[in-house]
Amino acid sequence: MEVYLDNNATTKVDPEVFKAMEPFFCHIYGNPNSLHKFGAGTHPKMVEALNYLYEGINAADADDIIITANATESINTVIKGIWIDKILNGNKNHIITSEVEHPAVTATCRFLESQGVNVTYLPVDENGTLDASLIKEHIKEETALVSIMWANNETGKIFPIKEIGAICKEAGVAFHTDATQAIGKIRVDVQACNVNYLSFSAHKFHGPKGVGGTYVQKGFELTPLLHGGEQMGGHRAGTVDVASMVGMGLAMKLATSEIALAYEENHVKKLRDKLENAILEIPETIVIGGKENRTPNTTLISFRGVEGESMLWDMNQKTIGASTGSACASEDLEANPVMNAFGSDSELAHTGVRFSLSRFNTEEEIDYAITVIKNAVNRLRNISSSYAYTPKDHVSQL
């Protein structure tokens, strides 16, 4: 049996989405910017896709959603656009973010630091929770942007976006959120949360890879990251991948429906909890960040005495896919920076394994995964030269 439990890295394309994309490869293939009927034939489905994107995050009609290649491009579009508009060409020189952001945010902020920008990285507590009041404490006259993720890609922890949005609005500071791991798992509402910029990627909610979006609230325009043609109203040059845009729109519609979100909260969460509770029966296993306030599909578990990469190897031999954290950092064998930020000791920071489910997982798959995981932990601890189980040290979660 093959069991895919790495849905925070990427998801399978929903068959209904794939079917909707097919005509745009060989039948409706015109360049949407061409004036002839072959190009114009793409327009109705592109408009429909944009409407689905607007509805999925509750954007207003006057707002913009720019189609990009992925969330990484979307994040760079916002942060570097703010750098150009508010820092290079303005009187601002400060950005606020957190210590547990996706590398697309962190690496972009590090680049801006090399250009003289001041960046504040706010800490989280041992449960991975960010205190929204820290935002208010660190905002100053020079602050150009606050960028805080909606949900963490490794633990699933949900951040207080509504509170942060209110604080930023009161202070007159632009607010960006990376919603890549939130859309399709929990309700995302940019109007209710006073979000000015939002980034997302289709392949995280059963759409195709290679396409994403940047939400820009009316009145918060940005200098484009890519210059060239007048596509996307001049906000992002380059011929639009119509098939992917159509696929992303339908994937958004399917993933953000009331039925889909209820299924995540009930069925997917039930399977996640079954997997998690069975793993916690193993001595000295820990849910990093605890069980509260998470997306329904994600758990990051530490197996004391077992390297995360060793666990992945054993599970892979039994055709189970999981990860040790962000797929964008999967080749980096340094201690997990998110676990470090949570205050995990140096040993535990190498032992985390992330399991992330989707609506396509079944109970039969979870039962099989539980058996494989328990056998793998037992085998790896038995051959370890350093692990020794001390019952009094066993805890079930932080």
TrEMBL record:
Taxonomically, the superkingdom here is Bacteria
The UniProt GO MF terms for this protein read: 2 iron, 2 sulfur cluster binding; cysteine desulfurase activity; metal ion binding
Q: What class of enzyme is it?
A: transferase
As recorded in UniProt, its EC number(s) are: 2.8.1.7
Q: Ranges for the Aminotransferase class V domain?
A: 3-368
Any matching Pfam family:
Aminotran_5
Recite the UniProt keywords alphabetically. 2Fe-2S, Iron, Iron-sulfur, Metal-binding, Pyridoxal phosphate, Transferase
- InterPro entries in the record: Aminotrans_V_dom, Cys_deSase_NifS_proteobacteria, Cysteine_dSase, PyrdxlP-dep_Trfase, PyrdxlP-dep_Trfase_major, PyrdxlP-dep_Trfase_small
Q: What processes does the entry annotate via GO biological process terms?
A: cysteine metabolic process
Q: Which cofactor does it need?
A: pyridoxal 5'-phosphate
Which reaction is this enzyme known to catalyze? (sulfur carrier)-H + L-cysteine = (sulfur carrier)-SH + L-alanine
Q: What is the role of the protein in this entry?
A: Catalyzes the removal of elemental sulfur atoms from cysteine to produce alanine. Seems to participate in the biosynthesis of the nitrogenase metalloclusters by providing the inorganic sulfur required for the Fe-S core formation.
Can you tell me which family this protein belongs to? Belongs to the class-V pyridoxal-phosphate-dependent aminotransferase family. NifS/IscS subfamily.
What protein name does the entry list? cysteine desulfurase
Higher taxonomy = Bacteria, Pseudomonadati, Campylobacterota, Epsilonproteobacteria, Campylobacterales
